[in-house]
Write a structure and sequence with these properties.
This protein has two helices and four strands. By secondary structure, the protein is of the alpha+beta class. The chain has one domain: Macrophage Migration Inhibitory Factor. The strands form two sheets. Strands 1-2 form a two-stranded parallel ribbon. Strands 3-4 form a two-stranded antiparallel ribbon.
């Protein structure tokens, strides 16, 4: 039973998350021939205040226009 786990910063539209799940599922099915019903996809969203890069949270980087 393949399990794909993805961690993203929070803030994407539900439709974008659904599209990601669909594409990941299709890629696993196509690449390793796993039965569709056995593929698991987990998407975790982390608040931008809880994710840091270069000692700045993503929220702090957003505030100064640095992105991330």
């Amino acid at each position: 039973m393949p399990l794909v786990e993805v961690t993203l910063s929070a803030g994407r539209e539900p439709a974008a998350i659904r599209a990601l799940i669909h594409e990941l599922h299709a890629a696993v099915e196509r690449s390793i021939g796993s039965p569709a019903q056995s593929i698991r996809v987990i998407v975790r969203e982390v608040p931008r205040t809880h994710w840091a890069a270069g000692d700045r949270t993503l929220a702090e980087r957003d505030a100064i226009g640095e992105g991330g």
